[in-house]
Design brief:
Length: 382
């Protein structure tokens, strides 16, 4: 077990002991609870069950004392890189020319989308840790290939949910003065306002809501997940995917979540797409309803008529027990078997769906388990 892992484990235990004090303080990084008109609108949502948001399908997100022990003290040799991760360094000038459709994966869920001359940033996370602070959670494997200070002018930031690995308070504060639109699921706007985003720049949406961003049609799509930033707010904001639709080009971002019939519904209503940003990592059989894994990600893209599969939510943070390269290895096998086109960019590398690069293994050889050895199958699918 690495020294950094031991420090993280110790900090996590200390953090749990201090939970009551933190709750009383309600530090800004935790965000803000929805109140007033925002809360009233949430309560009118078909997804609201009277106390919190819920998924249409039952959720299984198991854990055990043994799993927690393994998470805190287990061997991380295959779950974290032993050498620097290959990245492609980027700067603002790289994005000066308008693009028809170009996707630049910056790590985990953070993706710069250029579509029909507009620029959108999905789930910006630039901090070193996907957590409330440097003493909690897990550190990223590499520095952001596009520094936050170099992010080009944006038409909007698009958010899928409020977990720390998708919503970074420090990044929000930095981008708040310059980004004209912030598009998010219901309730997440309370966090944004606390971090300095003007209320009139925020639009919050329920599943199947639509909004216009600089002439693009954005549709909030269902996802099978959960939300929360502290001990008292689980599922008190909504989670989603997004369809980003231009006059000619169409992109689908699945957001986080387990597999379900919503992918076919997205395809029927909004497909076909030129490309899909699909989550493929941080999975485990015990929480297959909240992260679907590589094989079901491929099926999700097929169901949604999603075009080119660009895998995200992998290779950046140690958030599960699988090898850090395993999501990429398994998604290559699954996509080839299903005939789904695939591009697996390095962090910082751009992909143009009209002429995608061949999927190449840029990562090192690390022992990994196949789908037969470690199946991940969401429940409640009949």
């Amino acid at each position: 077990m690495s020294l950094s892992r031991k420090l993280i484990a110790g900090a996590s235990l200390a953090g749990a002991a201090a939970g009551g004090a933190l709750l009383a303080a309600r530090l800004p990084v935790f965000g803000a609870a929805p109140v007033g008109d925002r809360l009233d609108r949430m309560r009118r949502s078909p997804q609201w069950d009277g106390a919190a948001f819920r998924n249409p399908l039952p959720m299984r997100s198991g854990g055990s004392p043994g799993m927690i022990w393994e998470w805190l003290f287990g061997d991380t040799a295959e779950r974290e890189p032993s050498a620097p991760v290959p990245t492609v360094a980027r700067a603002r000038a790289d994005f000066d020319a308008p693009q028809d459709l170009r996707l630049t994966w910056l790590g985990h869920g953070t993706t710069l989308v250029e579509i029909e001359g507009r620029r959108l940033l999905i789930d910006p996370v630039f901090s070193r840790n996907a957590s409330p602070g440097p003493l909690f959670g897990v550190a990223r494997f590499f520095e952001p290939p596009l520094p936050l200070a170099e992010v080009p002018a944006l038409d909007a930031v698009v958010l899928t949910h409020d977990h720390y690995d998708h919503l970074d308070a420090a990044a929000v504060r930095r981008l708040a003065p310059s980004v004209p639109r912030w598009v998010c699921p219901l309730g997440v706007g309370a966090h944004l306002e606390r971090w300095g985003v003007p209320a009139d720049r925020i639009t919050e949406h329920d599943w199947w809501d639509e909004t216009d961003v600089a002439g693009l049609r954005l549709v909030c799509t269902p996802a099978r997940h959960f939300s929360g930033r502290f001990l008292d707010d689980r599922n008190r904001t909504l989670w989603s995917g997004w369809a980003i639709l231009g006059a000619e080009r169409r992109l689908y971002a699945t957001g986080d979540g387990g597999f379900g019939p919503h992918f076919s519904e997205v395809g029927d209503r909004l497909g076909p797409f030129d490309a899909t940003l699909a989550e493929v990592g941080a999975y485990n059989a015990d929480w297959a309803d909240v992260h679907m894994g590589p094989e079901q990600a491929v099926q999700a893209v097929r169901d949604a008529r999603g075009g080119l599969l660009v895998p995200v939510h992998w290779g950046t943070f140690n958030l599960s027990f699988h090898g850090w390269t395993e999501p990429a290895e398994r998604v290559i096998v699954a996509a080839e078997a299903a005939g789904v086109p695939l591009a697996v960019p390095r962090p910082g590398e751009s992909v143009e769906p009209a002429s995608p690069p061949t999927a190449e293994r840029w990562w090192p050889e690390v022992r990994w388990q196949t789908a037969d050895q470690a199946p991940v199958v969401s429940s409640g699918l009949g």
